Amino acid sequence: MKDVVVLIGAGAIGLALARRVSAGKHLILADLQEETTTTAVQTLLDSGYEASAASVDVTSHPSVKALVTQAKAIGEISGVIHAAGVPPSKSSPETILKVDLYGTALVLEEFGKEIADSGSCVVISSQAGHKLPPIGPEESQLLATMPVDDLLELPILQTNNIKNSYHAYQIAKKGCSLRVMAEAVRWGKRGARVNTISLGVITSSMADSELSGERGEDYRNMIENCPAKRAGSPDEVAAMGAFLMGSDGAFITGSDILIDGGMTASYYYGDAASAEQNQ
Questions:
Q1: pLDDT in tens, 42-51
Q2: Model pTM score
Protein backbone atom coordinates (compact mmCIF):
# COMPACT_ATOMS: atom_id res chain seq x y z
CA MET A 1 0.00 0.00 0.00
CA LYS A 2 1.48 3.32 -1.11
CA ASP A 3 0.90 6.81 0.16
CA VAL A 4 -1.57 8.57 -2.10
CA VAL A 5 -1.70 12.20 -3.19
CA VAL A 6 -4.98 13.35 -4.71
CA LEU A 7 -5.04 16.32 -7.07
CA ILE A 8 -8.50 17.72 -7.74
CA GLY A 9 -8.46 20.02 -10.75
CA ALA A 10 -5.71 19.01 -13.14
CA GLY A 11 -4.71 22.45 -14.42
CA ALA A 12 -1.20 23.86 -14.69
CA ILE A 13 -1.02 25.15 -11.11
CA GLY A 14 -2.23 21.94 -9.47
CA LEU A 15 -0.01 19.80 -11.67
CA ALA A 16 3.08 21.87 -10.87
CA LEU A 17 2.50 21.30 -7.16
CA ALA A 18 1.59 17.63 -7.59
CA ARG A 19 4.86 16.92 -9.37
CA ARG A 20 6.79 18.36 -6.42
CA VAL A 21 5.06 16.37 -3.68
CA SER A 22 4.17 13.01 -5.23
CA ALA A 23 7.52 11.40 -6.08
CA GLY A 24 7.48 7.86 -4.71
CA LYS A 25 3.75 8.08 -4.06
CA HIS A 26 0.69 7.26 -6.12
CA LEU A 27 -0.82 10.39 -7.64
CA ILE A 28 -4.51 10.45 -8.53
CA LEU A 29 -5.48 13.17 -10.97
CA ALA A 30 -9.17 13.94 -10.62
CA ASP A 31 -11.08 16.33 -12.81
CA LEU A 32 -14.55 16.81 -14.25
CA GLN A 33 -13.05 16.70 -17.76
CA GLU A 34 -11.76 13.18 -18.43
CA GLU A 35 -9.65 14.22 -21.40
CA THR A 36 -7.73 16.64 -19.14
CA THR A 37 -6.64 13.89 -16.77
CA THR A 38 -5.91 11.31 -19.47
CA THR A 39 -3.30 13.48 -21.17
CA ALA A 40 -1.74 14.61 -17.89
CA VAL A 41 -1.52 11.07 -16.50
CA GLN A 42 0.31 9.84 -19.59
CA THR A 43 2.81 12.69 -19.32
CA LEU A 44 3.44 11.82 -15.67
CA LEU A 45 3.83 8.12 -16.43
CA ASP A 46 6.35 8.97 -19.13
CA SER A 47 8.24 11.04 -16.53
CA GLY A 48 8.51 8.16 -14.07
CA TYR A 49 5.61 8.99 -11.75
CA GLU A 50 3.02 6.48 -10.62
CA ALA A 51 -0.30 8.06 -11.55
CA SER A 52 -3.89 7.26 -12.40
CA ALA A 53 -6.94 9.24 -13.49
CA ALA A 54 -10.30 9.74 -11.86
CA SER A 55 -13.45 11.65 -12.69
CA VAL A 56 -14.95 13.87 -10.00
CA ASP A 57 -17.69 16.46 -9.73
CA VAL A 58 -16.89 18.49 -6.62
CA THR A 59 -20.51 19.64 -6.38
CA SER A 60 -21.71 16.04 -5.97
CA HIS A 61 -21.51 14.36 -2.57
CA PRO A 62 -21.53 10.83 -4.04
CA SER A 63 -18.83 11.77 -6.57
CA VAL A 64 -16.46 13.17 -3.93
CA LYS A 65 -17.08 10.18 -1.65
CA ALA A 66 -16.31 7.84 -4.56
CA LEU A 67 -12.99 9.63 -5.12
CA VAL A 68 -12.08 9.16 -1.45
CA THR A 69 -12.95 5.47 -1.72
CA GLN A 70 -10.84 5.11 -4.87
CA ALA A 71 -7.86 6.72 -3.14
CA LYS A 72 -8.21 4.57 -0.01
CA ALA A 73 -8.22 1.42 -2.13
CA ILE A 74 -4.68 2.30 -3.23
CA GLY A 75 -3.22 3.37 0.11
CA GLU A 76 -3.19 6.03 2.81
CA ILE A 77 -4.20 9.51 1.69
CA SER A 78 -1.17 11.57 2.70
CA GLY A 79 -1.83 14.63 0.55
CA VAL A 80 -4.69 16.51 -1.07
CA ILE A 81 -4.37 19.39 -3.52
CA HIS A 82 -7.68 21.07 -4.22
CA ALA A 83 -7.29 23.26 -7.29
CA ALA A 84 -10.72 22.96 -8.93
CA GLY A 85 -12.58 26.16 -9.71
CA VAL A 86 -14.35 28.22 -12.35
CA PRO A 87 -13.41 31.66 -13.76
CA PRO A 88 -15.70 34.52 -12.70
CA SER A 89 -15.88 36.06 -16.16
CA LYS A 90 -17.28 32.88 -17.70
CA SER A 91 -19.55 31.60 -14.92
CA SER A 92 -22.82 32.57 -13.24
CA PRO A 93 -22.87 33.54 -9.55
CA GLU A 94 -24.76 30.31 -8.79
CA THR A 95 -22.12 28.16 -10.50
CA ILE A 96 -19.27 30.00 -8.78
CA LEU A 97 -20.78 29.54 -5.32
CA LYS A 98 -21.57 25.89 -5.94
CA VAL A 99 -18.17 24.93 -7.40
CA ASP A 100 -15.74 27.23 -5.62
CA LEU A 101 -17.38 27.43 -2.19
CA TYR A 102 -19.66 24.41 -1.74
CA GLY A 103 -17.27 22.16 -3.70
CA THR A 104 -14.33 23.18 -1.51
CA ALA A 105 -16.33 22.66 1.68
CA LEU A 106 -17.40 19.21 0.47
CA VAL A 107 -13.84 18.15 -0.42
CA LEU A 108 -12.55 19.33 2.96
CA GLU A 109 -15.31 17.50 4.81
CA GLU A 110 -14.94 14.14 3.04
CA PHE A 111 -11.14 14.03 2.82
CA GLY A 112 -10.89 15.31 6.39
CA LYS A 113 -12.54 12.09 7.52
CA GLU A 114 -9.83 9.93 5.92
CA ILE A 115 -6.63 11.98 5.71
CA ALA A 116 -3.64 10.15 7.18
CA ASP A 117 -1.81 11.16 10.34
CA SER A 118 0.76 13.81 9.28
CA GLY A 119 -1.19 14.28 6.04
CA SER A 120 -1.63 17.72 4.55
CA CYS A 121 -3.80 19.64 2.12
CA VAL A 122 -3.45 22.81 0.12
CA VAL A 123 -6.50 24.59 -1.26
CA ILE A 124 -5.77 26.87 -4.21
CA SER A 125 -7.81 30.03 -3.75
CA SER A 126 -7.61 33.67 -4.86
CA GLN A 127 -6.62 37.09 -3.60
CA ALA A 128 -10.13 38.15 -4.65
CA GLY A 129 -11.28 37.07 -1.21
CA HIS A 130 -8.96 39.65 0.35
CA LYS A 131 -10.71 42.40 -1.60
CA LEU A 132 -14.17 41.54 -0.30
CA PRO A 133 -15.54 44.35 1.88
CA PRO A 134 -15.66 43.32 5.54
CA ILE A 135 -18.47 40.99 6.55
CA GLY A 136 -19.83 40.63 10.06
CA PRO A 137 -18.52 38.13 12.61
CA GLU A 138 -21.75 36.13 12.53
CA GLU A 139 -21.63 35.78 8.75
CA SER A 140 -17.96 34.80 8.93
CA GLN A 141 -18.73 32.16 11.54
CA LEU A 142 -21.52 30.72 9.43
CA LEU A 143 -19.40 30.65 6.26
CA ALA A 144 -16.71 28.81 8.21
CA THR A 145 -18.83 26.28 10.07
CA MET A 146 -22.25 25.85 8.47
CA PRO A 147 -22.89 22.16 7.64
CA VAL A 148 -21.97 21.59 4.02
CA ASP A 149 -25.42 20.60 2.84
CA ASP A 150 -26.90 23.82 4.28
CA LEU A 151 -24.10 26.15 3.22
CA LEU A 152 -25.67 27.54 0.05
CA GLU A 153 -28.83 28.47 1.99
CA LEU A 154 -27.01 31.22 3.91
CA PRO A 155 -28.66 34.65 3.40
CA ILE A 156 -25.34 36.23 2.34
CA LEU A 157 -25.22 33.81 -0.62
CA GLN A 158 -28.70 34.49 -1.97
CA THR A 159 -29.11 36.18 -5.35
CA ASN A 160 -30.56 39.40 -3.88
CA ASN A 161 -27.30 39.86 -1.94
CA ILE A 162 -24.93 39.06 -4.84
CA LYS A 163 -24.08 41.95 -7.15
CA ASN A 164 -22.49 39.99 -9.99
CA SER A 165 -20.25 37.03 -10.77
CA TYR A 166 -17.11 38.70 -9.45
CA HIS A 167 -18.80 39.53 -6.16
CA ALA A 168 -19.85 35.87 -5.89
CA TYR A 169 -16.24 34.90 -6.60
CA GLN A 170 -14.98 37.19 -3.82
CA ILE A 171 -17.41 35.70 -1.30
CA ALA A 172 -16.59 32.15 -2.42
CA LYS A 173 -12.85 32.70 -1.99
CA LYS A 174 -13.29 34.43 1.36
CA GLY A 175 -15.45 31.48 2.36
CA CYS A 176 -12.71 29.05 1.30
CA SER A 177 -10.15 30.61 3.64
CA LEU A 178 -12.67 30.66 6.49
CA ARG A 179 -13.60 26.99 5.90
CA VAL A 180 -9.91 26.06 5.93
CA MET A 181 -9.40 27.82 9.27
CA ALA A 182 -12.30 25.91 10.80
CA GLU A 183 -11.33 22.60 9.19
CA ALA A 184 -7.76 22.94 10.48
CA VAL A 185 -9.14 22.29 13.96
CA ARG A 186 -10.92 19.11 12.87
CA TRP A 187 -8.02 17.90 10.71
CA GLY A 188 -5.66 18.56 13.59
CA LYS A 189 -7.43 15.92 15.66
CA ARG A 190 -6.21 13.42 13.05
CA GLY A 191 -2.70 14.88 13.13
CA ALA A 192 -3.19 16.48 9.71
CA ARG A 193 -2.92 20.02 8.36
CA VAL A 194 -4.73 22.18 5.82
CA ASN A 195 -3.88 25.61 4.38
CA THR A 196 -5.00 27.95 1.64
CA ILE A 197 -2.91 29.70 -1.00
CA SER A 198 -4.60 32.81 -2.38
CA LEU A 199 -3.27 33.65 -5.81
CA GLY A 200 -2.93 36.82 -7.78
CA VAL A 201 -2.63 36.59 -11.56
CA ILE A 202 -0.76 33.37 -12.34
CA THR A 203 -0.02 32.33 -15.91
CA SER A 204 -2.62 29.65 -16.61
CA SER A 205 -5.63 28.94 -18.78
CA MET A 206 -7.89 30.58 -16.18
CA ALA A 207 -5.77 33.73 -16.18
CA ASP A 208 -5.89 33.80 -19.98
CA SER A 209 -9.67 33.49 -19.77
CA GLU A 210 -9.91 36.42 -17.38
CA LEU A 211 -7.47 38.59 -19.35
CA SER A 212 -9.61 38.13 -22.45
CA GLY A 213 -12.89 38.64 -20.59
CA GLU A 214 -14.84 41.66 -19.45
CA ARG A 215 -12.51 42.21 -16.51
CA GLY A 216 -9.38 42.00 -18.67
CA GLU A 217 -8.50 45.68 -18.17
CA ASP A 218 -8.64 45.27 -14.40
CA TYR A 219 -6.35 42.25 -14.57
CA ARG A 220 -3.84 44.08 -16.74
CA ASN A 221 -4.00 47.02 -14.33
CA MET A 222 -3.21 44.70 -11.42
CA ILE A 223 -0.19 43.28 -13.22
CA GLU A 224 1.18 46.61 -14.38
CA ASN A 225 0.80 48.38 -11.03
CA CYS A 226 1.68 45.69 -8.52
CA PRO A 227 5.16 45.77 -6.91
CA ALA A 228 6.33 42.69 -8.85
CA LYS A 229 5.08 44.20 -12.15
CA ARG A 230 4.41 40.78 -13.65
CA ALA A 231 2.20 37.74 -13.38
CA GLY A 232 3.36 34.77 -11.33
CA SER A 233 4.14 31.27 -12.56
CA PRO A 234 2.70 27.89 -11.55
CA ASP A 235 6.17 26.84 -10.34
CA GLU A 236 6.25 29.74 -7.88
CA VAL A 237 2.94 28.59 -6.44
CA ALA A 238 4.19 25.00 -6.37
CA ALA A 239 7.26 25.98 -4.36
CA MET A 240 5.08 27.45 -1.60
CA GLY A 241 2.61 24.57 -1.79
CA ALA A 242 5.39 22.02 -1.39
CA PHE A 243 6.71 23.91 1.62
CA LEU A 244 3.27 23.94 3.23
CA MET A 245 2.67 20.25 2.55
CA GLY A 246 6.14 19.12 3.64
CA SER A 247 7.94 18.79 6.94
CA ASP A 248 9.31 22.34 6.77
CA GLY A 249 5.73 23.62 7.01
CA ALA A 250 4.74 21.32 9.87
CA PHE A 251 3.84 24.21 12.20
CA ILE A 252 1.54 25.89 9.67
CA THR A 253 -2.14 25.00 9.52
CA GLY A 254 -5.35 26.96 9.11
CA SER A 255 -3.41 29.71 7.34
CA ASP A 256 -4.00 31.62 4.13
CA ILE A 257 -0.85 32.56 2.18
CA LEU A 258 -0.99 35.34 -0.41
CA ILE A 259 1.06 34.76 -3.55
CA ASP A 260 0.14 37.76 -5.66
CA GLY A 261 3.27 39.82 -6.31
CA GLY A 262 1.89 42.50 -3.99
CA MET A 263 -1.35 42.93 -5.95
CA THR A 264 -3.49 43.05 -2.81
CA ALA A 265 -1.10 45.49 -1.14
CA SER A 266 -1.18 47.73 -4.18
CA TYR A 267 -4.97 47.50 -4.35
CA TYR A 268 -5.28 49.00 -0.89
CA TYR A 269 -2.19 51.20 -0.67
CA GLY A 270 -0.80 51.67 -4.18
CA ASP A 271 -1.72 52.33 -7.77
CA ALA A 272 -3.67 49.17 -8.59
CA ALA A 273 -7.05 50.48 -7.48
CA SER A 274 -9.61 49.41 -10.06
CA ALA A 275 -13.28 49.41 -10.82
CA GLU A 276 -13.68 46.83 -8.06
CA GLN A 277 -13.51 49.58 -5.42
CA ASN A 278 -16.48 51.33 -6.99
CA GLN A 279 -18.75 48.32 -7.25
A1: 999 999 999 9
A2: 0.93
